[in-house]
Please model this.
Amino acid sequence: MAQGGLSVAQGGSFKSAFLSAAFTSAGLDFLPEMDIASGTAVAAVIGGTGSVIGGGKFANGAVTGAFIYAYNHKGPHSLTNPSGKGVRGQDLEGNGRFGAPRARRDANGNIYTGSHEGADFMTTAGQDVRAISGGRVIRLPQGGGYDGIVVGDGAGTSWKILYLDVKPSIRVGDPILAGQVLGTAQDITIRYGPNMTNHIHVKLRLHGSVVDPARFIPLPNTP
Model:
């Protein structure tokens, strides 16, 4: 239903996108576990076939099938909330939601626009910050103060958390468990001023693509 609705919103066919998604989801449940490349290829063929049956284009269905495989079958279904709080919304310094517009100044002083590649989970300075999923430490803060930790599972999922003081006992290459305390949240108002809601920044990659962490991380009912 979701893929059909997205197709209609983009001027396409509900039926072809619906069948593409339905064929892919049903078909992959009966196939053995595969590596990412093989699974994506098979999902593309199934999705493309479903689209053709529905009167649409094979290429469009192939993209739908590959997307479903990457984000539904190979993507994480539920990650640990790193702070136990919600995502920072609009404050006087900007918006912390994924995709929010950003304006930055480069080294030459030129201003360019972009979008927020991550989600800001609200924190209280000094509180524990937890790993959103398991993996191994790829990178640690490089001495910049506001840098953070990068963890990957070697199977297509990696994530970064900024604005935390990582525990001194954690080293590059160490195994990390979902929910493990990584360190404590920094007080970023010292750097950005009191008008910015204190938070940690979470950036999530699935199979090379940056996605909204809030799609997979449970949020509390209240901010």
